[in-house]
Write a structure and sequence with these properties.
4-stranded parallel beta sheet, single chain, alpha/beta, Rossmann fold, Gyrase A, domain 2, globular
Length: about 600
């Protein structure tokens, strides 16, 4: 497809000197494989867009393709055999180290900061968004040739820790009371309620519940955080204990999700030693001024931000903004990045506007390199989730419930399936992660059990089932067909497949259903690029559903192993099955989802 795209672009550039050539992908293969919208070029040459598309259709000739004027669009439609050869060749013959849709190294470096949970709190369903959106962005960027630094900016500092220290010393340092008596945790799995991290979470919730009637408790929490910043031995001892407990629990969840980071050590606390130098640099720049009650702020009205950026509290304590500024300066010096993505919720939009504006003033190098990638929050039907109030849905409870629902279906429909537990885990995980990816990143999600862990419709299990069905066909075909689709070892975001020759005869792929599947497979590289460009996994998720749906039509209407097929037709259709399995497997893996061979 790249060869046809380049030829089309070259011919258009020759016919329209100086015009901007930007190709699009039509809605369906019936309209064509590539489209050139003539609006802008027509304006440049002083012609009607419809007239220009007709003139170009008559003037441009590309072997193996038909050029058609469709209103103001010039569409390139490949001949069936040319489409089959181009798409299958790109997938089957791709080098093992550079699979279909990937790109060579481009010399650019991207930092992706994602997940970033707060210490001493269990993962909720809300954490899934930052974790898996960020994972998909990191995977896609690396797949497209970027050097990627995956960072987890742990919330292991700040007033929240003062809250936890105050709560612990009030209620739990001498004995661990029955905190279940104060709140209804009936929906939380019993094994979850027994973990040390859940006990800390209960302390946090109880403190915030009681401080509503006793505002003096807030001063107690601030005092504990000040002790922590002042290296108080008791505060530091507890902080380290809680942090170590949290890291062990977080790593267990990340292992289950298949998510990795280059470091878990560059959380907020990591920048403590750099807060002083950062404040001095801000002072030297003349940006830092005194605000109310001794606080230190930076005015940003000149760049359209009415709210000043608070950098230091009146008592000298640092805040989130101080640590983010220190982190950005450290990352510039350490990583020399081209782009830094912050996968953080929409409630932090103003914060990042302030941080980026301060960095632009402090050092013009930062301008255009920093990007907040906001996502809508996960809400419950009754309203926003709140860790402080304890009305949350824990992520692992969702994953466990999804797994159990799948396990029950497997037991009913395929009780002899090997590795039932592993397959149930794959499908349950696929349901939860894919649900999140199918939703537009910037829109909030209302959590309901049936929606999040749905197993039918446009879901992860639907795409996973397409892969399993293909592998079943290939096993029935015998020979080495199944081996051709078998995934090799994964390295970073890449899954290795052994390059496979194209069948010499592709006549068996003339049917409309085969051509529709080839068209959707051709759309996968663009969908992966759109993940990086739009900083969301949604384009890839939707394209994988389109591939799976098209495969269903192909499977139904183009008998693959029918006795009446010629050997050539059989081989061509099996080759398309192999290509589809590879594409689905790689696409799902970029999102953090496994493709089962049986289910």
């Amino acid at each position: 497809m790249d060869d046809f795209r380049r030829t089309f672009e070259q011919q258009l550039a020759a016919a329209l000197p100086g015009a901007e050539i930007a190709l699009e992908r039509p809605r369906s293969g019936e309209l064509g494989d590539l489209a050139f919208p003539c609006f802008r070029a027509a304006k440049q040459v002083g012609k009607n867009p419809v007239q220009l598309s007709q003139e170009l259709a008559a003037a441009i000739h590309i072997e193996g393709a038909l050029l058609m004027a469709a209103g103001p669009y010039l569409n390139l439609k490949l001949a069936p055999e040319a489409r089959a050869k181009a798409v299958l060749g790109a997938i089957l013959q791709a080098p093992a180290e550079r699979p279909y849709g990937s790109r060579p190294a481009n010399g650019k470096k991207v930092i992706v900061e994602y997940s970033s949970p707060n210490i001493a709190k269990l993962f909720t369903i809300g954490h899934l968004r930052s974790t898996m959106i960020g994972h998909a962005l990191a995977q896609a960027h690396q797949f497209l040739g970027y050097t990627v630094v995956r960072l987890n900016h742990l919330g292991d500092w700040g007033t929240q820790f003062g809250t936890l220290l105050a709560a612990y010393t009030r209620w739990a340092q001498d004995e661990n009371p029955d905190l279940d008596a104060d709140f209804d945790w009936a929906e939380v799995a019993p094994e979850r309620r027994r973990t040390p991290l859940f006990r800390l979470f209960q302390l946090y919730v109880r403190f915030h519940a009681e401080e509503e009637n006793d505002p003096a408790m807030r001063d107690e929490a601030r005092a504990w955080f000040k002790r922590l910043e002042n290296n108080d031995p008791r505060a530091r001892e507890l902080w380290k204990r809680f942090r170590d407990l949290s890291l062990a629990e977080f790593q267990r969840i990340y292992d289950r999700l298949g998510v990795r980071f280059d470091t878990l050590e560059e959380g907020e606390a990591f920048y403590e030693a750099q807060l002083g130098p950062t404040l001095k640099r801000l002072e030297a720049s003349g940006l830092l001024v005194e605000g109310d009650r001794g606080a230190r702020i930076i005015h940003l009205e000149d760049v359209g931000i009415a709210t000043p950026c608070l950098v230091q509290k009146g008592d000298g304590a640092s805040i989130y903004a101080t640590r983010d500024l220190a982190a950005a300066l450290y990352r510039k010096a350490t990583y020399h990045f081209d782009r830094c993505l912050y996968v953080v919720g929409t409630d932090q939009v103003l914060h990042f506007q302030q941080i980026f504006a301060v960095l632009d003033k402090l050092d013009p190098w930062f301008k255009g390199r920093m990007l907040h990638t906001p996502f809508g929050m996960v809400k419950l039907p009754e309203g926003k989730m709140s860790t402080r109030k304890g009305n949350v849905i824990f992520l692992e409870d969702v994953l466990d419930e999804a797994r159990e629902r799948v396990a029950a279906i497997i037991q009913e429909k395929n009780p002899d399936l090997q590795d039932k537990a592993d397959v149930a885990e794959m499908l349950g995980m696929g349901a939860v992660v894919f649900f999140d990816a199918m939703n537009d990143r910037v829109k909030p999600i209302t959590f309901t059990w049936d929606r999040v862990i749905a197993l039918d419709g446009d879901t992860g299990p639907y795409v996973q089932y397409a892969h399993a069905r293909i592998m079943s066909v290939l096993r029935k075909a015998g020979g080495d067909w199944a081996a051709k689709a078998q995934a090799g070892a994964a390295k970073g975001p890449f899954i290795a497949f052994v390059p496979t020759p194209l069948p010499s005869d592709l006549e068996g792929l003339q049917a409309p259903e085969a051509q529709a599947l080839l068209f959707e497979l051709a759309g996968l590289p663009g969908a992966i690029a759109a993940v990086a460009d739009g900083c969301m996994a949604t384009p890839l998720a939707r394209q994988l559903v389109a591939v799976a749906r098209s495969f269903s039509g192909f499977y139904t209407n183009c008998p693959i192993l029918a006795p009446e097929n010629t050997p050539e037709a059989r081989d061509a259709r099996l080759a398309l099955c192999v290509a589809t399995a590879r594409a689905l497997c790689q696409g799902l893996f970029l999102m953090g989802i496994q493709a089962p061979d049986e289910m």
